[in-house]
Amino acid sequence: MLSSFDVDVQVLRLVLFWIAAALAIVFGLDWLVRTRRLNAFGPLARFFRGTIDPWLVPIERRVVRAGGTPASAPWWALAVVVVGGIILLALLSYIRGMIVEAAIAGEYGSRGIIRLAIQWTFLVLRFAILVRVLSSWISISPYSRWIRWSFVCTEWIIRPLRRIVPTVGMIDITPIVAWLALGLAEWVVVSALA
Question: Which of 122, 119, 146, 120 is nearest to 134 (CA)?
Answer without folding.
Answer: 146
